């Protein structure tokens, strides 16, 4: 499984420490294409006591144009951002003075830890920001292992 | 899909996690005026300030992080911060009729142009 970078700086030792840290916690996230520059949309992932939280900035998207699927521990975000200018107003190119915004199809996949409750996954979309809540499965209670004497 | 505009923070505030970003925009011209779109994810109507003063239009969108207390970032590809951008308006824009609408983190501003006065014939009398 590919391991994502924690920041832009390449620090093998720190990465190794964090990877060990993650292995101890049993949590592994990997984002497909993270090594490729300027993936769309950019995502942030946070850990809380009872859940993981994924956020993505998707200005101009409509809820009905967003598609979230989960299969084999891979969460896929997919969508299409329509250009109100190009499709509804039919403005010729020469009328533009600035053109910096982007439109079109996009897709990202995020590998999620096994300790996620798929059924309780939820998402909300407000002010162009998507939040995906991934609740952690209840931890199994510690089990006592009886130790018998060798007699 | 073409490449997204990179929101590079150009000014860091006192708080290490706070940035001010230049939002990506589109501007195009119609017969009636200029239309401006700006991507402002995380900005709501209550946290957006639009101001016109001395032919300068300034938009300031304030963004609250909205991340629960105690959340530990484990993977970060973007920073959250306020948006700030200013524009110099030409003299033909009617300031009092500027319209703005914010939908799903996208701001649309319409900047109407004053109608051009019809040419008036001036009677020239003979001396």
From TrEMBL, chain A:
Keywords: Stress response. It comes from the Bacteria. InterPro entries: A-crystallin/Hsp20_dom, HSP20-like_chaperone, Small_HSP. Residues 34-150 form the SHSP domain. It holds the Pfam family HSP20. Belongs to the small heat shock protein (HSP20) family. This is 18 kDa heat shock protein. It comes from Gimesia panareensis.
Automatic annotation (TrEMBL), chain B:
This is Spore protein SP21. Belongs to the small heat shock protein (HSP20) family. Residues 16-127 form the SHSP domain. The gene is hspA_2. Pfam families: HSP20. PANTHER family: HEAT-SHOCK PROTEIN 20 FAMILY MEMBER. It comes from Gimesia panareensis. Signal peptide: none annotated.
């Amino acid at each position: 499984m590919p391991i994502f970078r924690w920041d832009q700086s390449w620090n093998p030792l720190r990465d190794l420490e964090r990877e060990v840290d993650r292995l101890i916690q049993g949590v592994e996230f990997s984002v497909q294409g993270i090594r490729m520059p300027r993936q769309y949309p950019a995502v942030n992932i946070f850990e809380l006591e009872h859940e993981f939280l994924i956020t993505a900035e998707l200005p101009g998207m409509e809820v009905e144009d967003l598609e979230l699927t989960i299969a084999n521990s891979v969460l896929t975000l997919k969508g299409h951002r329509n250009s109100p200018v190009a499709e509804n107003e039919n403005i010729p190119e020469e009328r533009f003075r600035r053109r910096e915004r982007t439109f079109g199809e996009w897709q990202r996949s995020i590998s999620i830890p096994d300790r996620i409750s798929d059924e309780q996954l939820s998402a909300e979309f407000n002010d162009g920001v998507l939040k995906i809540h991934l609740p952690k499965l209840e931890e199994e209670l510690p089990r006592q292992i009886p130790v018998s004497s060798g007699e | 899909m073409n490449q997204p505009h990179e929101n590079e923070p150009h000014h860091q505030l006192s708080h290490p996690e706070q940035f001010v970003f230049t939002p990506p925009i589109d501007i195009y011209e119609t017969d009636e005026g200029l239309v401006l779109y700006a991507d402002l994810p995380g900005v709501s109507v209550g946290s957006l300030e639009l101001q016109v003063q001395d032919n300068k239009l300034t938009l300031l969108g304030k963004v609250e992080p909205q991340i629960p207390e105690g959340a530990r970032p484990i993977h970060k590809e973007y920073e959250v911060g306020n948006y700030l951008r200013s524009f110099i308006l030409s003299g033909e824009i009617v300031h009092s009729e500027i319209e703005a609408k914010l939908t799903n983190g996208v701001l649309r501003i319409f900047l109407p142009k004053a109608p051009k006065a019809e040419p008036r014939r001036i009677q020239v009398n003979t001396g």
